[in-house]
Specification:
Elements: H1 3-7, E1 13-15, E2 21-22, E3 27-28, E4 30-32, H2 33-46, H3 72-89, E5 93-101, E6 109-118, E7 123-132, H4 139-143
Antiparallel strand pairs: 1-4, 2-3, 5-6, 6-7
């Protein structure tokens, strides 16, 4: 086993997100280190508080902000919600900066840009989370009602 990988085990290892399977080895595809942290951030930001049965407080509730007008106070509140969720649920990192990129508003998309430092290694990374509302699908067309 590679000694450098042993030193980085504390960064975590988990299922890929969304879950994927290797048909050859018939195993779950795993992610490690910064990729695992990015997957964790994606899951955290996309989870509604109360959605997880075993941890009802986990999540960020960004869905509550979908129809808000994006002014300075809403952007500040959005950054605060994200910061709080990361502080409580992603202890492996320290937030360096959170920016809300609003250039995609005409298409209904904002980009949440998070610059972070992995605490134990002092390595800097960034993560971009696209936040948008997709158009709904009529279930009767899928269910053939």
């Amino acid at each position: 086993m590679d000694e450098s990988s042993d030193d980085r085990n504390f960064l975590g290892r988990g299922w890929s997100f969304p879950p994927q399977f290797d048909p050859v080895s018939k195993t779950v595809i795993m992610t490690e280190e910064a990729e695992d942290i990015n997957n964790s951030l994606s899951i955290l930001l996309s989870t509604i508080v109360g959605e997880r049965v075993m941890d009802m407080s986990y999540g960020c509730n960004l869905e509550d902000m979908v129809f808000e007008t994006l002014d300075t106070s809403v952007i500040t509140y959005l950054k605060s919600k994200i910061t709080k969720a990361i502080l409580f649920y992603e202890a492996r990192i320290e937030i360096e900066k959170i920016e809300i990129n609003t250039t995609g508003i005409p298409e209904g998309v904002i980009l949440i840009e998070i610059d972070y430092i992995i605490s134990a290694t002092n390595s800097r990374f960034n993560f971009v989370y696209p936040f948008w509302r997709q158009e709904g699908t009529e279930l009767s067309s899928l269910l053939k009602i």
